[in-house]
Specification:
This protein is of the alpha/beta class and 287 residues long. The protein has a single domain, classed as Spore Coat Polysaccharide Biosynthesis Protein SpsA, Chain A, CATH 3.90.550. Helices cover 36% and strands 26% of the residues. The strands form four sheets. Strands 1-5-4-2-6-10-9 form a seven-stranded mixed beta sheet, with helices on both faces. Strand 4, helix 3 and strand 5 form a beta-alpha-beta unit. The N and C termini lie far apart (60 Å).
């Protein structure tokens, strides 16, 4: 391994360890219980919020409306914008959605993927591990379920639910939306950090290939469908398209934090855009 790469990995590990050390009792939390969940059908759904309160407000509405069963939806705020963070907190507290304000996440000096992965790792260690729900999952703040979805039922059929990412014989679940049985990760080395294995780069969630996914029988697992669709003229993925998962049951409006600079602001059309896909799916489901 080249010296530059070794220095990078060492700095990454040191900064992540420091970030993970902070415990929930030292942070601002509301409506959050860390007691072990005594419910065989419980599913914790964690959304990492980032700099967009309007997106979170709509996201929370759709999550509450369509994720059925014994769901606890928790928003973990990884924002860098203090005003947006305050607005996200107010949105969550108004609807009594459990909320955690993360401390400064300096992993963004490497890239947004490392910052996001560090927030996932913190959430797994300090929320999922103490609560030990039957299942848990992470969903991006700009993805919306648009029809009733029973996550616990899906996890009763197989130990995971999500879209597969495959690279050179290795695979993992897309961090946009994924769910796992807790027992699949218990006592395992869990990390959602991007990783390079034998020269192959695996994005957020890829580090779990070695500890979790490689031990599963891929051929006997079902992974959700995914496809891109333009909702207006143009081929800019971050500006003109949505991503649809699981036979259009989820709509991912993409780039909700504007990490990719685009020519237009989406918030003015966001609610109608999601409703458009919601109505279309509902029409196809009618007898």
């Amino acid at each position: 391994m080249r010296l530059k790469r070794r220095i990078f990995l060492t700095a990454l590990r040191v900064m992540e360890r420091r970030f993970l050390r902070r415990t929930p009792d030292t942070l601002y939390c509301s409506n959050l219980s860390l007691d072990k969940v005594d419910d065989p059908e419980s599913v914790d759904v964690i959304t990492i919020a980032f700099n967009n309160a309007k997106v979170i407000a709509l996201h929370n509405q759709y999550t509450a409306k369509y994720l059925t069963g014994h769901i606890t939806h928790i928003v973990v705020d990884n924002s860098t914008d203090k005003r947006q963070s305050q607005a996200i907190r107010e949105v969550c507290e108004a609807s009594k959605v459990p909320y955690v304000r993360l401390h400064r996440n300096r992993m963004d000096i490497f890239s947004g993927s490392y910052s996001h992965a560090a927030a996932l790792n913190w959430s797994y260690r300090h929320i999922i591990m103490p609560r030990q729900p039957y299942g848990f999952g992470f969903i991006d703040h700009d993805i919306f379920p648009i029809t009733p979805i029973d996550i616990a039922r899906k996890l009763s059929i197989q130990p995971l639910y999500g879209a597969q990412r495959k690279r050179n014989g290795m695979w993992y679940l897309s961090a946009i939306m994924f769910f796992l049985r807790y027992e699949l990760t218990d006592q395992k080395q869990v990390s959602f950090m991007p990783v390079t294995i034998d020269g192959t780069y695996l994005d957020t969630g890829g580090s779990n290939w070695s500890s979790i996914y490689s031990g599963l029988d891929e051929q006997n697992l079902h992974f959700v469908s995914e496809r891109m669709e333009s909702f207006r003229e143009g081929e800019n993925r971050h500006q003109d398209q949505v991503e649809l998962f699981d036979d259009d049951r989820w709509v991912h409006t993409i780039n909700g934090s504007y990490w990719k600079k685009i020519a237009v602001v989406k918030e003015d059309i966001l609610e109608e855009l999601v409703r458009q896909y919601e109505r279309r799916l509902s029409a196809t489901q009618k007898p």
